[in-house]
Specification:
Chain lengths: 83, 222
Amino acid sequence: MARYVVDVMPKREILDPQGKAVLGALPRLGFAGVNDVRQGKRFEIEVDGEADDQRLDDVRRMAETLLANPVIEDFTVTPEAPA
Amino acid sequence: MRVGVVTFPGSLDDADAARAVRLAGGESVALWHADADLHGVDAVILPGGFSYGDYLRCGAISRFAPVMAEVVAAAGRGMPVLGICNGFQILCESHLLPGALIRNDHRTFVCRDQRLRIENNRTPWTSSYAERAEVTIVLKNGEGGYVADEPTLERLEGEGRVVARYLEVNPNGSLHDIAGIANERGNVVGLMPHPEHAVEDLTGAGTDGLGFFTGLAALATT
């Protein structure tokens, strides 16, 4: 079993209202000095077989096809070492 | 004119869209998301709602529904396609229209009678409006902020592809006050406000939305 993590984040130039909401809430809870919060998504994907370049490519294609919208989001794919 | 209205799991406004088609003199045809067949319709409406619960991103799952491959192919052949609200989001996710719709900048759901200017009356969906007509149409969305990169916005503006623009207030943070856009050919239109809710005096704020459906019906008879 190979495992990959896909992190999806709104592009820097795209407004992130959810991150802004969290940023607004933190000082109210007493957390001072927080300058910025961006909110994204994390996907943990398990695929059959061993991690290799082919599967990494497959997961990248999953990310650009479905998991992320490249118009407004960036993504990274990271293979996770077996536990 | 036979107009297909697609129902996805979580569509809300399919019945209203079908009713608007009939009030405008057209014949509405119910289309099902899992049925890869447009049943010979002359035009398609992707209605508002929360297809697939807005999971992942609004419209992201619906884009891959079996019916959508047919809609994309038909749109490429010039069939008129109108996406309203969630339908607009699906059209952007399907790359039939550029840009994307993100959460409203003020982070709250908005529901209001919205003033709009019809900026482009040369699409099959807007041909019954006078150029630069000002209308009031219901707007209701949580993720209606239209965004696109600067070159895309310049192209949309330069090619007259902004179909409708918000007047008086920008209700959701849309760039350039954009309420609706068209593809290059003009047959595919995405619109965040809901003209299908503004077709009868009994409900809603007047009948300014009816023109989106009568324009199409008029095309069939000319």
